[in-house]
Amino acid sequence: MPPPLPRRQAWGQSAEPTPPPPVPVGPPEHQTPVDPWAGVDTGGWDLPSAELPPLPPTMSYPPPPDTRQWSGPPAPPAGPHPLPPPAAPSAPRAIGPTVPARPMSPPAPPKTPKSPKVPKVPKQRRGGRSTAPPAPPPGWQAPKGYVPVPVRRRRRWPWLLLLTLACCCGCPAYYGFPISAQYPARAALPVQVDDLSLRQDDRSAETARQLEGEVRKEHWLAEDTFAGVYSTTSGKRVTVSGGTGFRLSPESDAEGEISRLTERYALSAPESVDTGVRGRHERCAVGSADGSDVVVCTSVDHGSIATGVFTRLSVADSASLLATLRAQIVQPERS
Q: What is the pLDDT of residue 148?
């Protein structure tokens, strides 16, 4: 009869066998002690040992000789080093077991002598003096072909001195030359300037006196004043006035003079004219007087001021004619 088939596991049942429940063990003080050496013969513990051969006697080393403090050999004389004398053969002494000699290595190649180092010259520090180079060691010899080169010190003080002189003397000379060339000055009206003739009739003289009074009133620091009326045979009329004296800012004085005459002559916007002379400034503007067009120009430098009213001339011609007039009227007094 065949054995029965194994029983199939139910759903959710573990495949591992269920371990048996543990056996309860009581406290150790209630258990019977067990002797681990029970039934073992412990009568003799002496075990037989194998006999070893006796060790050979050891050889004693000889005592080391007494050593004294070595004072060193005497210093060799100066010059080429002599060869050391051959060493005397030493007596053999008894030592321990012989050791096979090691093979000798080939001798090292002789070293080539190095050239002595040249002492470096210390660099000069900025803003301070350079220290002296250190002295060479005793017995030092320069290598073959070495030529000492003296170190040249860089001097900076001449450049600083020149810069100081340029700042202290150059700036005053640049700004002071125009003043010394234009002041002081004197003024005198010539009778004839090119094709212009000075009018000396009563009406012209009265006009000149009024203009000279206005210049003295407006420029009360002026040292000298002048005014006159010039005309040509073709009917051109030129009225010139001004004064001499020191002026610190000629440009602002020229603008102030044009502003003063703007209402009288109904002047337009003034134009700046290049005079070609450093320190001299000129302004010109177009206006009207007695129903006719006129050009008013004023020229100011550090030593004088000159204003002209021109008829039947352009602005460029008026500025050129004023430069000619002031060159004849104002003369600098150079010492």
A: 72
